[in-house]
Specification:
This protein is of the alpha+beta class. 39% of the residues lie in helices and 20% in strands.
Length: 163
Amino acid sequence: MTIDVQKELAALEQMSVGQLQDCYAELTGERTRSRHRVYLVRRVIWLIQAKAYGGLSERAKQRAEELARDADVRVTPPKHSLAFIPTMGDGPVVRTVVSTDDRLPAPGGAITREYKGRTLRVVVLPDGFEFEGERFRSLSAIAKKVTGSHVNGFRFFRLGSAA
């Protein structure tokens, strides 16, 4: 069986999300909850091609199952781009927050800047920042306190490009 992939793809591009979901259900025998148009188009075109030319080999399916069983799958990314590293103490596991942003000095380090004749000194903590005896979650919050308006903290303290 030969299919014209470009023709099929053009037809799928013209379909609504509901029609793509119906097409997916027809090909797989189960409904999808996805409403992501691009995903559905890609998935349906792959299913059409797999039906016409054959899908994954048995060996590939077995290997994928092996990898899925052994994988330590993370569903959501770490919050605020911080990695949680468990450390062992005398009791239960204690979680330590470690910053992964390479623009910042290590916890305990300081960031200084001259601003309007004032020397600003910020100490980097494992879970935030300390400025004038007060704790802050971000450099932007410190920059806002100093300037009175929203400023990107990394730009204000001149710490590389703001991401």
